[in-house]
Amino acid sequence: MTLETFPQLLSQHARERGDSAAMREKEYGIWQTLTWAHLAQLVEQIACGLHQAGLRRGEHMVVLGANRPRLYATMLAAQSLGAIPVPLYQDAAAAECVFPINNAEVRFAFAEDQEQIDKLLEIRPQCPQLAQLYFDDPRGLRKYDEPGLASLDELIAAGQVFAQQHPRFIEAEVARGQADEPAAMFFTSGTTGTPKGVVHTHASLLDRARAGAEFDKLTAEEEVLAYLPPAWIGQNIFSYAQWLACGYVVNCPESAATVTIDLKEIGPTYYFAPPRVFEGLLTSVMIRMEDAGAIKRGMFHACMDLARRVGPQLRDGKSVGLIDRLKYALGDLLVYGPLRNNLGFSRVRVAYTAGEAIGPDLFTFYRAIGINLKQLYGSTETAVFVCMQPDHEVKADTVGVPCRGVEIQVADNGEILVRSSGLLREYYKNPEATAEVKTADGWYRTGDAGFLDAQGHLKIIDRAKDVGALANGAMFAPKYIENKLKFFPHIKEAVALGDKRDKVCAMINIDFDAVGNWAEKRNLPYAGYPDLAGKPEVYELIRDCVEKVNADLAADERLAGSQIHRFLVLHKELDADDGELTRTNKVRRGFIADKYGVLIDALYGGKTEQFIETQVKFEDGRTGKVSADLKITDAKTFQPMKAAA
Amino acid sequence: MTLDHSTPATDATANATAGRQIGDVILDVQNISLAFGGVKALTDISFNVREHEIRAIIGPNGAGKSSMLNCINGVYHPQQGTITFRGQQFRDMNSRQVAEMGVARTFQNLALFKGMSVLDNIMSGRNLRIKSNLFLQALRIGPALREEIAHREHVERIIDFLEIQAYRKTPVGQLPYGLQKRVDLGRALAMEPQVLLLDEPMAGMNVEEKQDMCRFILDVNEEFGTTVVLIEHDMGVVMDISDRVVVLDYGKKIGDGSPEEVRNNEDVIRAYLGTSH
Questions:
Q1: Which chain A residues are Cβ-neighbours of B1 within 8 angstroms?
Q2: In terms of DSSP H, where are the helices of A487-535?
Q3: Quick one: which of A218, A522, B102, B128 has the fewest CB in 10 Å?
Q4: A contacts of B215 (beta carbons < 8 Å)
Q5: Bridge-partner residues for A401, per DSSP?
Q6: Residues A73-86: what's their mean pLDDT?
Q7: What is the pLDDT of residue B134?
Q8: Which of A389, A337, A396 is nearest to A361 (CA)?
Q9: Do residue A571 and residue A458 come from a single domain?
Q10: A-chain residues within 8 Å CB-CB of B117?
Q11: If you ran DSSP here, which 8-state letter would residue A390 be given?
Q12: How high is the mean pLDDT of chain A?
């Protein structure tokens, strides 16, 4: 039998290592193991039930719920019949499910529990074709009397009978599966416009899953905790595609609230999380350390200072002096080891973060305490793996080297183009959108701007549409500069200006809490936000940050021109209520350019002071005016360094 | 145990047949009068509770709601009247005997063991069902160990049911109030009661916690077929979830019937709107 589709891989695991664990789920306080053989049996029964109920080859089936063995079994069952599972986000509002269900003409849906079933029933009038709804957890659903609503148990029971009568049926169906058939469809979140269904074939998902697995030498021995939404391709790759490709164990947490406890109990060897998860973990550690006794706290800080200096060097395989090595070993015994254990990272061999830029301090913290945290680059359309950081070649501001089978090209506008066998087949029923992102010769437009550095690592700088150019033609990537500024705890928000101008200037928002705290420790009195923001000491503090960013930018030939020449500290916080930020806290450049036009003119006009009066909206809806005389300061810029050979 | 959820599924089917068909009178309260010295707490109260129903007792402060519950519970002994549970009359029974008959309760002011974990608190609800003697339990040998495992399994089902898995090992005193209320309910459920008495299960909760608690009460009633008698202040909650409502005022019964009937009862409106007496 060929091993080209996910159900075929399942059959192989069940045949060759049926007694090994495939999944674990914590139920009633105990980790329950599901072996490959049992899983294959469960999948066969569900598949037979679905076949009897009328699920046909090429049809889409929605799965809606958290990571549970029976959700994954249902996806495998649908694929066994040649149907295409469409996982939807379990926390999406009911209305958000309407478009995907109608777009994919879904008749069959699997939902985890009452909450998800309620959602589907709510939108049923808008989705008349939605005929069969199956639920896993019967709790609260007993009184429901809806046509086509049935429990998964009933489906399994029916499937069991069918399987006994037709023992070879599923085997034959699975054998019919082809690599180039669609395997799953993922809807992109669609922050702009309607969502798009990204169609991936078995071949594209498996190709990327295997490339990623080879890159980090994953084996069947890995332990993974599946805790992010299954509708997100990242989770799907890590706990489905790579799970079936490698045959490791996927663990399902008891509930969303127990993830940190379960993480500790499982001790995954392969771990993946977006930066915000790592940030949350770090914050909880820091809060607990602040509450600890003076001795423990002192020990922690002393060890962390050492770790920040030595840890990353050790991770990168660089040489470290003997004394430092010994000290680090002692720190490992006293602090880093117990801390890793407490976070559930004791056994982590490879950990990845992706999705957005990660702050260098955050990134360094985890590497310093001995966790092999790395970055990767990819998207739903590329089935995740485009670039990955190899062990010992990890940098905070790049996303690694292209992995097997990936070609990268940088377009004239700085946009990154990717070609690999893991690209989406199409956007479902949306040839215009497909044509927009996929060129005739098979390149995918990522929409991200960036470049490959001297070592061949990809560096992402901004969304391509935001990247502009300075008057002298040099590239100008505002978000890249702003992110660098925002990584400093004292800076909350920043706006970089420079498109079609001769130099870059910046408007900066201080972080009131952090800077306020800083001022109090220095016995620096202030009367409020505008007063604090205007203090010369604060300007010095911010200038320091700006100059560090400039030094950083100067190290890169392409970005050296984007050094910040002048800056000012704004007298009020940029606020979504005043229209300066979007609701998700992204800077609205056009609006700001209008509103603060006088400041921008002053920045470029060489003035050292400018009066400004702006309208603000208070939380109770009233409006008022704030005014201030803002100082404008120059920052030191650096000679661009030639890239080291 | 495998992962195919067979155990809960069989439970579920068994319960489905037990169902939520409101049955015969399970608890009958006849002409109860209770006085503390010269203070008449309850005067000639009669009402009944049918099997599998949710029965609410409402009334303004000091109406005698908790006293009524304490009578059913065997904490107070009324001077007059009878209480019949499944055809068996109980006068002068202590609360342990009442508990053994299958009546469990929760308390208005939580009475949990603050220093003990959630798990141990709920386990303490199994107390009446533990058969092995103290000596075997202390040594954790043979039958005592097997028994403890069986009880633990039952407790785990309750933890799962009340969605408090994340707090299993947390001392109850560290939990927020809403969660403590849930643990209190869990401990009562651990007794596998036929009748569950809830004394203001939603007092002091925010809207979200109230909604959660309502769902748990309805689910207990539906999944386990447990008869529920609850005292509640929040009229909205009472009207939404109960099958029948008794209204007390100054120790007297002033209304009895479906939520709709009670809502339109003149006496009830007067008692709640506070007309002068």
A1: 27, 30, 32
A2: 512-521, 529-534
A3: A522
A4: 140
A5: A388
A6: 97
A7: 77
A8: A396
A9: no
A10: none
A11: P
A12: 91
* Side-chain-facing half-sphere of B268: CA atoms under 13 Å: 20
Size of interface A-B (CB pairs under 8 A): 63
Q: B195 to each of A261, B27, B161, B186, B263, how far by Cα in Å?
A: 35, 9, 18, 14, 25
Question: What are A18-34's pLDDT values in tens digits?
Answer: 999 999 999 888 999 99
pLDDT-derived band at B2 (thresholds 50, 70, 90) equals very low
Same domain? For A415 and A557 the reply is no
Measured CA to CA, the distance from residue B224 to residue B204 in angstroms comes to: 27
Helix pair A512-521, A536-554: axis angle to 10 deg: 120
- Give the CB-side neighbour count of residue A575, counting CA atoms within 13 A: 12
pLDDT at B3: 40
User: Which residues 22-51 of A have a C-beta within 8 angstroms of B?
Assistant: 23, 25-30, 32-34, 38, 42
Q: Do A545 and A422 sit in the same domain of this protein?
A: no
Residue B10 makes CB contacts below 8 A (sequence gap 6+) with none
3-class secondary structure, B190: helix
Query: B57 has which bridge partners?
Result: B231, B246
Q: B273: which 2 tokens?
A: 């709107």
How many CA atoms lie within 13 Å of A299's alpha carbon, on the beta-carbon side?
14
User: Looking at the DSSP assignment, which residues form a beta bridge with residue A476?
Assistant: A468
In this complex, the residue of B2, B16, B163 whose CB is nearest that of residue A255 is B163
Burial of B272 per CB tally in 10 Å (0-12, 13-18, 19+):
middle
- A376 within a domain of the structure (yes/no): no
ipTM of the complex model:
0.76
Give the residue range(s) of CATH 3.40.50.300 domains in chain B: 11-102+193-277
SS3 of residue B78 by DSSP: coil
Report which of B187, B178, B193 is spatially closest to residue B112, judged by C-alpha positions: B187
Q: In A216-274, which ranges are continuous DSSP H helix?
A: 233-236, 242-246, 259-266
Supply the range of the domain harboring residue A208: 6-271
Assigned fold of B11-102+193-277 = Rossmann fold (3.40.50)
Residues A87 and A163 in one domain: yes
B221 near B20, Cβ under 8 Å? Answer: yes
Cα–Cα distance between A388 and A444 in angstroms, integer?
18
The residue among A419, A443, A466 that closes a domain is A466
Q: What is the spatial distance between Cα A630 and Cα A628, in angstroms, rounded to a whole number?
A: 6
Q: What is the dihedral of CA B194, B195, B201, B207, to 10 degrees?
A: 70
Q: Which residue type occupies B110?
A: L
Query: Mean pLDDT of all residues in chain B?
Result: 85
Among residues A505, A499, A447, A493, which one has the least CA distance to residue A634?
A505
Q: Name residue, tokens 């990767």.
A: A376
Q: Is residue A18 part of a domain?
A: yes
Query: Between chains, do A140 and B215 touch, taking CB under 8 Å as contact?
Result: yes
Task: Identify the bridge partners of residue A633 per DSSP, sorted by sequence position.
Answer: A567
DSSP string, B216-250: HHHHHHHHH--EEEEE-S-HHHHHHH-SEEEEEET
Number of domains in chain A: 3
Q: CA dist A482 to A485, A497, A506, A589, B210, Å?
A: 5, 10, 9, 12, 44
Residue in chain B nearest A136 by alpha carbon: B5
Q: Chain B within 8 Å of A139 (Cβ-Cβ)?
A: yes
Whole-number Å distance between alpha carbons of A35 and B277: 72
Confidence of residue B9 (pLDDT cuts 50, 70, 90): very low
Tell me the shortest Cα–Cα distance from A261 to chain B, in angstroms.
8
Q: Find the residue in A nearest to B119 (Cα).
A: A29
Six token digits for residue A58 = 């090429």
**What are the structure tokens assigned to A271, written together?**
């771990």
Q: Tens digits of per-residue pLDDT, A242-256?
A: 999 999 999 999 998
Look-up of token digits 């009359």:
B89
Q: Considering only residues 226 to 285 of chain A, which have any Cβ-Cβ distance to chain B shorter than 8 Å?
A: 254-255, 257-258, 261
> Distance between terminal CA atoms of chain A?
51
Specify whether A484 is located in the same domain as A455: no
